[in-house]
Amino acid sequence: xxxxxxxxxxxxxxxxxxxxxxxxxxxxxxxxxxxxxxxxxxxxxxxxxxxxxxxxxxxxxxxxxxxxxxxxxxxxxxxxxxxxxxxxxxxxxxxxxxxxxxxxxxxxxxxxxxxxxxxxxxxxxxxxxxxxxxxxxxxxxxxxxxxxxxxxxxxxxxxxxxxxxxxxxxxxxxxxxxxxxxxxxxxxxxxxxxxxxxxxxxxxxxxxxxxxxxxxxxxxxxxxxxxxxxxxxxxxxxxxxxxxxxxxxxxxxxxxxxxxxxxxxxxxxxxxxxxxxxxxxxxxxxxxxxxxxxxxxxxxxxxxxxxxxxxxxxxxxxxxxxxxxxxxxxxxxxxxxxxxxxxxxxxxxxxxxxxxxxxxxxxxxxxxxxxxxxxxxxxxxxxxxxxxxxxxxxxxxxxxxxxxxxxxxxxxxxxxxxxxxxxxxxxxxxxxxxxxxxxxxxxxxxxxxxxxxxxxxxxxxxxxxxxxxxxxxxxxxxxxxxxxxxxxx
Length: 489
Known about the structure:
- It is a single chain.
- This protein has helices spanning 47-58, 81-87, 90-93, 103-120, 132-149, 166-173, 191-197, 220-229, 250-253, 262-265, 322-358, 379-385, 389-397, 428-447, 449-453, 466-471, and strands spanning 2-8, 17-23, 124-126, 156-160, 177-181, 202-208, 233-237, 257-259, 280-282, 294-298, 301-305, 374-377, 405-406, 417-420.
- It is of the alpha/beta class.
- It has two domains: 81-334, Type I PLP-dependent aspartate aminotransferase-like (Major domain) (Aspartate Aminotransferase, domain 2); 344-471, Aspartate Aminotransferase, domain 1 (Alpha-Beta Complex), CATH 3.90.1150.
- The chain has a seven-stranded mixed β-sheet, sandwiched between helices.
- α5 crosses α6.
- The longest helix has 37 residues, at 322-358.
């Protein structure tokens, strides 16, 4: 089918426009089964109405650019725009991964490795993992390869009962049996329980430090010595590295494998703004097993080293999400060593400020000194008036604040948990807004609990039935289906 496209011509007396033929897709190639049987009910609107419509839709979403996002353990901090500009430079964004003229890109990878080695105390890194979860898989695979090379067939990975859910899932995927280690009243690893479980079958211990209660494991050197004493290795889940960035290093604590979430500590986009990046670093003994290739430097030139006979192989296409490395390197270069130290100091200060202000209004299931995040519990509100962590989270939405992480750590470890992480990028004024909202909600829980049970009240869609949405999701459009299918009455 041939259509006509109009273009205006300037300086042509008597002719307002000219035409030229243009191919138009008539839809003939679309299978009949995929075509509508009735016209789409699309309104006829002007451009201004259309712009306002989509702008209004965008404003219904929460984002770190518009609202406070205290999502514990996820470190939802601001992504500076200069990082985006750097990653979108034509010389970077337009570089094909198979280009023969990739020296600048290889240099970026190599320099980012030097930064992470200095920060973590590791001896080498791979940048292939596409996110933290894949980083975990790579890290445990490296531990397994290390033991195999030494002739061992270890079967057990130890994990604290407060750990991220991906930790036991990763260990199981790699063929290990998982054993949980109890937490103390402070929220730290119960060293006595750890000692009781240490046998020659233990391949390693996966640990976050500070842990998911936001508490620093002050017996970490003893823990490392105990694990190493049975031939096991210590794996560091870097989700909480933001707490001591530039202050201390996992390698100095005795960790053998480290994964670092660039989308948390190094301000690259998180979640739907990704893609992610989960570099994995190792000590010298595990270097031979890193995924191939790795970037190496010889003289003044960089190259990809594929000569790695003990490597676990390639785990991702090409060399990881390169744009994330560019953003992270810009972040590191702009801050420098002193800036990174200041980052962790402000993150810890912000968290402790919130903890001190809310201590009288909510329970803390573990009493250890918090670092960059803290766990509160709605158990007091639940016992008095049946108000749950979910009710408090939903009510926060009415104040224009994204809910914190709830029910993590898990209820079997602590009830009605709310994990709050403010990050260093939030101002004192914003922290006070959040604190005031939480105090008001605590008062409402006593005086008008029904208000919380029906929250949120100021959103286009009211409280959804998450259980039904998870068990009976509407996965495709069909005539007559509406969002209210999973909305609570």
